[in-house]
Amino acid sequence: MALQAGGNADWWRGAVIYQVYPRSFQDTNSDGLGDLKGITRRLPYIASLGVDAIWLSPFFKSPMADMGYDVSDYCDVDPIFGTLADFDEMMAEAHRLGIRVVIDQVISHTSDRHPWFVESRASRTNPRADWYVWADPKPDGTAPNNWLSIFGGPGWEWDGVRRQYYQHNFLTSQPDLNFHCEEVQDAVLETVKFWLDRGVDGFRLDTVNYYFCDKQLRSNPPHEPDEDDAGLDAPDSNPYGMQSHFYDKTQPENVDFLKRFRALLDQYEDRTTVGEVGDGARSLKTVGAYTSGGDKLHMCYTFDLLGPEFTAEHIRGCVEDFQKVVTDGWVCWAFSNHDVMRHVSRFARTEEERPVIAKLAISVLAALRGSICLYQGEELGLPEAELAFEDLRDPYGIRFWPAFKGRDGCRTPMPWEAGKAHAGFTSAEKSWLPVPYEQAALSVDTQEDSYYSVLHHYRRTLAFRKSHPALIDGEMTFVGTNQDLLAFTREKGGEKLLFVFNLTRKPAAFRLPDGIVLGEPLAMPGYEAVNDAGTVKLAALDGFCARVSGRAKLLDKVKPVEGELPEAWR
């Protein structure tokens, strides 16, 4: 069904978003790299999943030092992906199929080849001299403070022309913009307007809490060993995690800029934003600051569910923490994306367990309150690819190999047809990353022929979610249990659904609390747990859903935590 203009401003609330990594999705010109025409070609497949929107990783002009996250022109398409006309054709076809288009915006930094930076580094007096974070050296010539790059090494690079250091949170070829300069904000918003005028439906804001740094350039304190390590932004092999990043990111001034960003979006109908927040143990508080009040971001996601834990305790803790801190904001949950190991490999203990885990994970995700984001290939149950060092393209992985193997393992090309070279991704002799045999064996065409495949389970599960309004934006309340069971209700209008998931490797029984009346058991796709005289019997890695009524023994909705956010952020 084609999209209708206007009238659905809250389409993003409870939406299912499918992330496309363009260079790995489909190649149409035989250069071994995916392109925009390839996305257009595969849009009917994406539509068949039942998603509401696609999120496109960067396709802008770039030297590709960080696979497009180093932008040299925000208002043009890199030739390896196609042209602006190709983008327009892709977006028109997506809209015809009822799919909205969300694009990445990488605005905390640019490429060092961006004209803005080329001019800025030319002198200390040019019109764009203050557009980046420049600082004088200490008297001994060293960097102005101890800030680190998340990609390894210091967060400062010396420039011999200006005889100053410039800040970079990532590669040295990704200098950070100075958002304290209002002209920078204006210029960035002009590039955003370019895409809004072109008709995009929203933006995923990369590293949204990295826009501002401390004006005084104070050094970060060490990370205390007894601090909560949940949600750390770097692997143990990276010294970045040895600091508490109080001053190089997540500054209170960011809130006012996000208000400017939202004010621009609100001039257009039915647009949305989703921010990526990487802020260690403070991530949820940051999400609360950025999504509260309805005048900043529409929603955010953190890395809380992107780690190794797949337990009832962990998932419940993440959701409850969100409910406590992010009182009137909205979350986008995900188990995988282009920056982390695929969740089937994180959660499954054996190869045989992978499809079981893949099905259970999407069933849990689809039942949570919030929007959800899927990463291309997870609907096939793809595991992380094991790549040889010589095949790596990710500078992050190359830098920290072998302790950390980087992000290439989750970025290998989409397997479409098992019997073709490179699993149908490209007709080129060589693909930009190899397609491992174990991934080719899980190709789309292979799974289309099997009713019990992970692919068909995804389709049925997303259809189940859409058929129950309570799962889109209904209230969520956890049910008390002493076992490692994830039990909660979702409620909207006259519908209340009970979900019970057994995430352990042993059978379990869930006794319905007194006062809860079990109604019609629902055929949640893929699961057949039964109710026996008030006790739900679940197999290992199993799930159950039924309509219920009553409230006795249900845990109260968690109460908001007052005073959690700095006053300047409110």
From TrEMBL:
Q: Which InterPro entries match?
A: GH, GH13_cat_dom, Glyco_hydro_b, O16G_dom_2
Which parts of the sequence belong to the Glycosyl hydrolase family 13 catalytic domain? 19-411
Q: Tell me the Gene Ontology biological-process terms attached to this UniProt entry.
A: oligosaccharide catabolic process
Q: What is its EC number?
A: 3.2.1.20
The protein's UniProt keywords, in alphabetical order, are: Glycosidase, Hydrolase
Q: Is the keyword Transcription regulation assigned to this protein? A: no
Protein name, entry field: Alpha-glucosidase
| Organism, scientific name | Rhizobium lentis
